[in-house]
Amino acid sequence: MAHHPLIMAESARQLALALEHDCPPCAVRARLEPVSVGLGLRLRSWPVERGGATDVDVRMSVSDLVTETGRPVSHRVTAEFRHTGESFGSCTMRFARPAGSAPYAEEAPLPGLLHPPAAAVGATADGDVLLARAPRGRLVTARRDPGHPVFLAGRPARMPLLAVLEAGRQAVLLESGMTAAAVIGLRADVCAPVPSRGALIETSAEPGGPRFLVTAGGRPAATGAVTLWSK
User: Fold this and answer.
1) Among 58, 141, 162, 171, which residue is least crowded by beta carbons within 10 Å?
2) Could you read off the pLDDT of 160-216 as tens digits, one per residue?
3) Bridge partners, 108 (sequence order)
4) Radius of gyration of the chain (CA)
């Protein structure tokens, strides 16, 4: 079974946090969080799971460091992943101060929410599904597992960046009818808090690939794109 592409993004996030702990204490107190991410895969080059884990090499770099009064307020981390000496993907993630001080209030419970089956959104299990079909056919954030150990660890009131990225990926696959194997690139930028329930997700077909827009409280909260490959 091929690795889920978001393993690269989560690995890059964890490695970035490890780097922060090696920095002076002021850098840790800055409380930066990932606000944008972009990743790409090389066709037919990503490793296949063997026993649930794969040994890979990672080359990391830090750039675009911005400081205020000697403390970092944003930076960018790039990770290139290699397996048996060959690059199979890369991930770039920007860290900055949290987007907004509090999430928008969640919408009142929506009647008649229908969660799509996991296969329809490129998920492995039903608990991984992060969206649902609301009245009038709208797609909204609606996690099947409110405490998902990866996307929603700690049951946050707002969706972390990688959960937004995954919700956008699921929305594009659901609307396009493509499978998870077709995804070779992902991007997301969060500009405002995204509630874990009730945020609207809209997709559009663009020449460079499908895009998605997440709105909360009637205002844009995140944007992103999914690069799909087809024969």
Assistant:
1) 58
2) 999 999 999 999 999 999 998 889 899 999 999 998 888 999 999 988 889 999 999
3) none
4) 18
pTM beyond 0.90: the answer is no
**The dihedral sign for the CA sequence 121, 115, 6, 164:** positive
Burial 98-119 (b: 16+ CB within 10 A, else e): ebeeebbebbeeeeeeebbebe
Residues 6+ apart with CB under 8 A from 38: 91, 92, 93, 185, 186, 187, 188
Can you tell me the distance from the alpha carbon of 122 to that of 48, in angstroms, rounded to the nearest whole number?
Answer: 17
- Cβ contacts of 86 within 8 Å, gap of 6 or more: 45
Give 60's Cβ-side CA count (13 Å radius): 18
Segment 221-230 shows an average pLDDT of: 91
70, 107, 117, 161, 189 from 96: Cα distances, Å: 15, 27, 35, 12, 12
Phi/psi for 174 (5° steps) reads: -65, -45
Partner residues linked to 190 by β-bridges: 222
Give 49-62 pLDDT, tens digit per residue: 666 667 888 999 99
